[in-house]
Amino acid sequence: MRSAFLTLSITVEPERFRLKETFSISRGSRDAAEVLTVRVSDGDFEGRGECVPYARYGETLASVTEEVLSLSGDITRGVLQDVLPAGAARNAVDCAMWDFEAKRAGVRVWELAGVAAPSPLITAYTLSLDTPEKMQAAAARNAGRPLLKVKLGTPDDMARLEAVRRGAARTDIIVDANEGWTAEVYSDLAPHLLRLGVLLVEQPLPAGKDDMLAEIERPLPVCADESCHDRASLPGLKGKYDLANIKLDKTGGLTEALALKEAAMLQGYGLMIGCMVGTSLAMAPATLLAQGAAYVDLDGPLLLAEDRTPPLAFEDQRLHPPLAALWG
């Protein structure tokens, strides 16, 4: 599909990338990454971006495609921030425009952004929600990784977490409840999280129903995910969260993500840089954002049975910055 009204032409293509195995969280399961690839071009240079429409935020492949193709006029990254809201559509266009600008200027994207060249990063590897037995087996298979992220968010999570720790006795662990707990469940689990060496818990309570986090004891750091989208989210995190999980599909692209990162750090929040289940093209801009973050969770390509060419390199337990042929 093509919009004819842009100074830069824009195309949107739905693509499907198979996962190595079913990926489950407390809200559901998937067997493939369903993404949209956006391309912007002036006829000589082309930039690409990827987004993952997310039903939790009311997005579908069709609705996000419609948002992208609604753009008209002379679109710049600055204008884009005003004409599209934070979300998947703006993310794909914004990242495609960063890529386009870098290719047209003949420089790498971090030079355009005025930041240091990115270095390789340790990323978490996510263990999908499953039975305790299967999660223990998955933990054992990945016990050599430096950091595991464990998907939880059910009334039966203690058995799962104990099983993961048996499978990976010495690996650092963080947990993600995906809004699946109540304040009472979190308070009951928190001492056990500490006992099992969990470093951080992500989004234990539902966004919009998380005020109790300001009132109950938080014995280990709590990270906002669904409660943090862009800079407008920051006032609502005060007193409830210790870290903010920045994802490009929530911020609406790298432009706002860089601004959110700076604002969050100035307000004293630690940072996690996360992702939806997408390809190396979706992770590439986030490698720039992730420099200096306390936690990096950009393992999307590690979950895929098929990926972009060239993919991001995962070597020596580290995620490496993208080649220019991929992005930026």
Notable traits:
328 residues; alpha/beta; eight-stranded parallel β-sheet; four-stranded antiparallel β-sheet; 10 helices; 30% helix; globular; disordered N terminus
Secondary structure topology:
Elements: E1 2-3, E2 9-25, E3 28-41, E4 46-51, H1 61-69, H2 77-83, H3 88-105, H4 109-113, E5 125-127, H5 132-141, E6 147-151, H6 157-167, E7 172-176, H7 183-195, E8 198-202, E9 222-224, E10 243-246, H8 248-251, H9 254-266, E11 270-273, H10 280-289, E12 295-296, E13 314-315, E14 318-319
Parallel strand pairs: 5-6, 6-7, 7-8, 8-9, 9-10, 10-11, 11-12
Antiparallel strand pairs: 1-2, 2-3, 3-4, 13-14
In terms of per-residue confidence, which ranges show pLDDT below 50 for 5 or more consecutive residues?
Answer: 1-5
Percent range for β-strand residues: 15-25%
Q: What is the overall pLDDT average? A: 94
- Given the helix and strand composition, which structural class is it? alpha/beta
Strand order of the largest sheet: 5-6-7-8-9-10-11-12
What best-fitting shape do the alpha-carbon axes yield? Answer: globular
User: How far apart, in Å, are the first and last alpha carbons?
Assistant: 24 Å
